[in-house]
Amino acid sequence: MKAKWGKSLVWIVLCVLLMGNTQAQNDSIQEILDHYQTTGAIPSLFVLHHGSRTNQLFTSQEVEGLAKRLNGEFHGKDLQIYRSADGVRYQGDHQLSPSLKVAVRVVDDKPTETKKKPYVSLELRGTGTPDARLPQYRKQFQQICEAFGMTPSLHFSIQGEVDLKQASELKSLVQSTTKPFGATQVEEMKTEQTVSISYFIPRWGSGIVTQGGEMNLQVSARWNYQTNRAVLTMGTPIITIEY
């Protein structure tokens, strides 16, 4: 009886931790969305991405089955299979609208092993300003991960251009943009054309550990010499698109 109670207690604790982590990810994404609207930047691209290995071990045949089932979650019928010396990649792309698409990737990078944990990637990519479909697919990504025994690990990035007088003001732009978050700076990278600073916000929960410390927010500003404007990109826990 004690053993059963012990197992139940561990399961309850794990569920609470996962729910807390999911809620923190939701809050961070929503805060970035809300705040980005106040920066004066015109959104041109946003990406929501989950990427992790499965918690469960699969055979090669089961990996293919997993890929088909994940692809089916987005009503996809065509699943592309690419085989190489590095392994097998299953790929499904779904154009939801002219401005929004979903990509499903399952990678078996250990095809010779009997049992392995494949890498799963779910990506929602859109142009322009995110609408109500973003939180819908964010919720669907989380539900899919939980249903298939994976821990949701969501990354969100949004990018657009904002008016700025000159490239020398890039750092000031990043600092003024992040000031309302009450974030602590972790690392900084600066060139003549680009400034990228990582931060940590405790209320957003755990992030990614780097040489400078733990971070869960990254903001960059790059000078676009073609338009004479700044490209402002924000991401949590890190930016996962080119900036």
TrEMBL record:
InterPro entries: DUF1779 (IPR014794), YwmB-like_sf (IPR036209). Keywords: Signal. Residues 1-24 form the signal peptide. The keyword Hydrolase does not apply. This is TATA-box binding protein. It comes from Baia soyae.
